[in-house]
Design a protein that fits this description.
Blueprint (H helix, E strand, L loop, with lengths): L1 H29 L6 H7 L5 H14 L13 E7 L4 H11 L5 E6 L5 H13 L1 H6 L2 E3 L12 H16 L5 E6 L8 H8 L7 E2 L2 E2 L5 H6 L2 E3 L12 E3 L13 E2 L4 E3 H9 L4 H8 L10 H7 L2 H4 L2 E2 L17
Parallel strand pairs: 1-2, 1-4, 2-3, 5-11
Antiparallel strand pairs: 4-10, 6-9, 7-8
Helix pairs in contact: 7-10
InterPro entries: GLCAT14A/B/C, Glyco_trans_14
Keywords: Glycoprotein, Glycosyltransferase, Membrane, Transferase
GO molecular function: glucuronosyltransferase activity
């Protein structure tokens, strides 16, 4: 009996001590004295095994190699040019062509009255989107442009140089007039060109000059727009000249879609051919229909990039007139 009483006396303090320890431990958890769940898990790791496996799997997914980026979408650089009375048509065409990814140069030639040029500049400056994106630029110092004369080529090259200086992050240059209007949206155009080689040049061309050899290549003309401040037609000079032998002449459409590498070649001219041909076409009738064709087809590097189409549709009168 004595031993039994002694055992009961020993067991009671042990049980009481265990209950007190358990109570203190639980209380410390509730009071934040055991501050980290990680410490609790280190004491009872069996409860967090599934959680650690889940975290490990997620980390493996997050640290995986990202997929390679897709090809960048193409960008276009436009020249939209007009003359006297073309303000509203140019403004309409610019809005129809506009896309924030593209670059735009607009030009009203020197024949347009100052009021029209100032009105165009004011519209661009006060346009909310154009101002925010900053991708529409007006050539404020207007050029004199003569129809069928080399000043049209000079004006196009001027716009190309401006576009290259402002932003080289574009793929194709497209020259248009204020009378043009897009037949597809810019999104459709981007989608179509996204699968194409960025070096392609869309230039309608032929080496079969036909009647143009006698009527355009052999006569000598002078463009008054090169040295006069008022507009007048080209005039013929004498004597006539023979066809060139240093290069082969090509002719085609004045409307083109040019790749940026080819535009850089024409503007910077690390080969002398673009400059030589620019001087030759100074006295050529309708030089805009032959300059780019002759340059691209006489340089082997670029001749293989030409697609014989200008991507331009013209609705001619029947019978055809000088202008559609």
């Amino acid at each position: 009996m004595a031993s039994s009483k002694m055992e009961n006396k020993c067991v009671c303090p042990v049980l009481l001590s265990s209950l007190v320890c358990a109570f203190v431990f639980v209380t410390s958890l509730n009071m934040g004295l055991v501050s980290s769940v990680h410490k609790f898990n280190s004491i009872f790791p069996i409860f967090s095994a599934h959680q650690r496996m889940s975290e490990y799997a997620e980390s493996k997914i997050e640290l995986g190699t990202p997929p390679p980026p897709g090809p960048t979408l193409p960008r276009f650089a436009y020249l939209v040019s007009g003359s006297k009375g073309d303000l509203e048509k140019l403004w309409r065409t610019l809005h129809a062509l506009y896309h924030p990814r593209n670059e735009y140069v607009v030009h009203l030639d020197l024949e347009a009255p100052p009021e029209e040029r100032l009105a165009l500049a004011s519209r661009i400056d006060n346009h909310t989107v154009f101002n925010k994106v900053g991708n529409v630029y007006m050539i404020s110092k207007a050029n004199m442009v003569t129809y069928r004369g080399p000043t049209m080529v000079a004006n196009t090259l001027h716009a190309c140089a401006v576009l290259l200086k402002r932003n080289k992050d574009w793929d194709w240059f497209i020259n248009l007039s204020a009378s043009d209007y897009p037949l597809v949206t810019q999104d459709d155009l981007v989608y179509t060109f996204s699968a194409l080689n960025r070096n392609l040049n869309f230039i309608e061309h032929t080496s079969n000059l036909g009647w143009k050899a006698n009527k355009r290549a052999m006569p000598l003309i002078v463009d008054p727009g090169l040295y006069m401040s008022t507009k007048s037609d080209i005039y013929w000079a004498t004597p006539r000249r023979t066809l060139p032998t240093a290069f082969k002449l090509f002719t085609g459409s004045a409307w083109t879609v040019l790749s940026r590498p080819f535009v850089e070649f024409c503007v910077w001219g690390w080969d002398n051919l673009p400059r030589t041909l620019l001087m030759y076409y100074t006295n050529f009738v309708s030089s805009p229909e032959g300059y780019f064709q002759t340059v691209v087809c006489n340089v082997p590097e670029f001749a293989k990039t030409v697609v014989n189409h200008d991507l331009h549709y013209i609705s001619w009168d029947n019978p055809p007139k000088q202008h559609p």
